[in-house]
Every structure is written in C-alpha cells, then in structure tokens.
Amino acid sequence: MTGQVDGSPPGVDESGGFWSYRRFRELDFMPSGFLRWWLLALIVLGWAVEQYEGLKTGPVLVYVLEEFDKTLVQWGYVAAAAGLAYSIGAMLLSRMSDRFGRRPLMVWPVLCYAVISAFGAMAPNFYVLAALAMTGSFMMAGMNSSVHAASRDLTPQMGRAMVYAWVSLAFTIGALMSTLIAAHTLPIWPGWRPQFWVGTVLGGTTALILYFAYRDLSERVRGQIVKDQVLAGSVADQTDLGGTDDTSGERSTVAYDEGREIYRSPRLWLLSGTIVFWSLTYVTVSGYVPTYLTQHYGLDPAVSAGVTSWFWIVFTASVFVSGWLSDRLRVRKTITAFGGISTGFCFLVGANLPIGTSELTLTLVWSSTGFFAGFIYPAWCAIYSETAEAISPFGVGRAFGITATLAPIAGLTLNLGLPRVVEIWGWPTWMMIAGFCCFGAAALVGFGKGPWLPSRNKDRGNPLASSTGEQA
C-alpha cells in the first residue's frame, strides 16, 4: 500500500500527524521539509552503525592477534576472504534494491550484523571469527547499494553532492565510533570481545528504529526523480511510466529491464574504477592506521585510536565543505581530482615521518589528510549517480552495486598485499602506495559526466538546474 501524508500532495491524511506516514508500505510522493530530512537521517544512522560493525575490529586487532596467536599476514587472508564475500553480496543483493525497494536491505543487514557481533563476542577460535567476518561483509554489501540509491531518491530539492556528504557522514561516524568507543572503553573493558558486545547492542537498537520508522518511495516516484532533475520540471508531469494501478506489475517489469542498460556502459565501468583506488586508501585508514601507529611509532593502542579519530573528525567537516562547493560550482570532476591529488601528497609526507615523531605532529598530519580526503567521495558520488541516471533511472541501485562489487579488488590488494609489504619493506612503503592510489582516483574521475570548469550561466549555483548542456 502506498500513501501520501504530512501535507504533501492532495489526498493527504493529516489526522495522524507526522507519524501517519508509517501506515504505508511506500510513499507515493516526494517527501519534503522535515520528513525528507528525517528519512535521510535514518539512512545515515543505519549506514553509520553498519560501518561501525565492520570497522570495530580495527582498533583492537592487536588483541585479536595476540589472543589467537596469529600474525598480520594471517589476518590479511581473513580480510581478503571477507572482501570476496562482499563482492558476491554486492552482485547478488544489489539487484534486490531495484527490484524490491531499498527498505529490506536497510533493515535486515543491520539486524544480521548485530547477531553476528554477538556470536563474534563468544567466538571460541580464530576460524569462527573469520567465518563471522565474511558473513557480516556479505550482508554489508547488500546495504551499500540501497543506502546510495535511497540517498539519490531523496535528492531533488537539495544539491546532489551535499546528499552524498551526508552519506559520507555515515562512513565517518561509523569509523569515528570505532576509534572513539575503543579509546574510551578499552581502559575499562580491556580486550576485543567487549567491542563486539557494544556492536550487538547498537546494531539491534538501530535495526528496530529502521524497521518501525523508515519507508521507501514508490517505484513510480523513484522513476520520476531523475526527470525532475534533468528537465527541471514537475515530478507529476515527468513520468514515462504512467498508467493505472492495474498495470503496475507490468510497469515494474519494464522498469527493471530498462535498468539493465547500466551494465552496458563502458563509461560507467571506467568511472566505477575510481572506487577501487579510493577504497584501498579508505580501508588503509579505517582498518590499519591504528595498528600502523602502534607498531611503527610505538604508541599505545588507545592513543593510536585517538590520533586516528582526528582524521575522521576533520574529514567529517570537510565532506560538507566539498559538497557545498561541488553543488555551488558544479565542477564535480575538479573537486574530486583536487581531493585525490592533495590526499596523495599527504600520505607521501606522512610516510616519510621518522620514528619518534611526536603525537602532536602525527595528529596534525592525519588531520590534514582527513581534510583533503573529504573532497573525494561526495563529488564522486554525485558524478556517478548523474552518469548512471543518464543511462537509466531504474538501474541506480545496480549501478552502485557495480562499485560495491569492484571495491573488494582494493580489499584483496590491501589485505593480501599490505601484510607482505609491511613485513618486507615496512609500514612507510605501504603508506606511499596508498598515496599513489589517490592519484589513480583523481585520474579516473575524468570519465564521469560533467564539466571541469564552472559554468558562467545563471544556473551555475542551482543544483537542480537542467543538465542537458553539461559537458561530457
């Protein structure tokens, strides 16, 4: 059942107040005002907690390796296997996002990861923990495409890059939670198992909130959004799939089939490659920098977590600055490339800091790295979603499924390569590799749709203006 609520289009039932939208399985109108922000906040909440679940092992990895008497190389094999599970999950589950809507893959992965964390806290051996890590990675991949597609669904009356700045906020909140919670709870509850119990509580609570509060937009509205964006027209007037309710099943099949065009675009596949380089850099920070600071500079694990937290704090502010600039100037490519190049240089600088560098200096370097890294993801997501929409508005979930499928290539390279590189050449060598990956991300963004230089026309600052005249 679909519905209209909260004073939106005609036919709204206001008797139940704001929460009356929960009576409907899907919303058959474009949310505005507080309802839009509320739905976006729920997306951010769910994705942030899911990120935390996946990253909570990083700050306490040294304890995991110590308890099970394993090496970083052996953990790399586990992480690589989890990356393969992620890729498989992305291929299989991203299709469900376009076929059945975003909500199922927003609720169930969070709940499943809460259960996985509970079993992880009781893991009797290393191999059980490894199997649970793979299962959690599989579920997270399904949520990835739904989160990005749902964020795009809510875009029309706000800048596209700013929407993905909010998605970036979920990444950073999750990463920040993993380091801050570890930094403040390790002195109280030493070891790694308490972190998994924290994940169980957070995941279970969040899943309940999403189940009762989040609702999808109907397929009809999702299909109209891109036409509103491109033609700057009325949502009600821009549908290609109009018709009566008794043809909804047929229209759904046509829409889903149209979305398969996503897989036939070489440009989209090349642009998707950007995420491989960015993911390698991102996971280096989220999964390994605390361990790097502990092993290379001799910092206490709690101190290392605190230093890494500053990367995420500054990154969180930076993504909104870059999102605003991207929507204001409409130069997604330039902003993404700037972020990639400047972040790469920061990694190169950090890799050459000597042993014995003070905690303050390390904090300043990683804070600067976080600032420039914030310029990469929001603008790139905007380019990617707009490029995908130009092919088919009904394949956006599958488009982001492509990126989620390719991202584990970075994970395989990272988790199999990093331990070997560190073992043979040391941590600084890997940090330099991560820096060059940022340069690779800057190069591939050129395949996206859109201009390099700001337009001088009157619509330059309007993120909803017609894109029919954009440069390719």
- Calculate Rg over CA atoms: 22 Å
Determine the strand fraction and express it as a percent band. Answer: under 5%
What's the CATH C level? Mainly Alpha
Considering the protein shown, what is the CATH homologous superfamily? MFS general substrate transporter like domains
**Mean pLDDT across residues:** 80
- Regions with pLDDT < 50 over 5+ consecutive residues? 4-14, 226-247, 458-472
The helix count comes to 17
Q: Architecture in CATH?
A: Up-down Bundle
Envelope shape? globular
Supply the helix-strand structural class: mainly alpha
User: How many strands?
Assistant: 3
Relevant terms:
about 475 residues; mainly alpha; Growth Hormone, Chain: A; 17 helices; disordered C terminus
Structural notes for this entry:
This protein has helices spanning 33-55, 61-68, 72-100, 104-121, 126-153, 160-185, 193-213, 219-231, 248-258, 266-272, 274-297, 301-329, 332-351, 359-373, 377-391, 396-425, 427-444; strands at 2-3, 26-27, 216-217. The protein is mostly helical and 472 residues long. The protein has one domain: Growth Hormone, Chain: A (Up-down Bundle), CATH 1.20.1250.20. Strands 1-2-3 form a three-stranded parallel sheet. The model is unreliable at 4-14, 226-247 and 458-472 (pLDDT under 50).
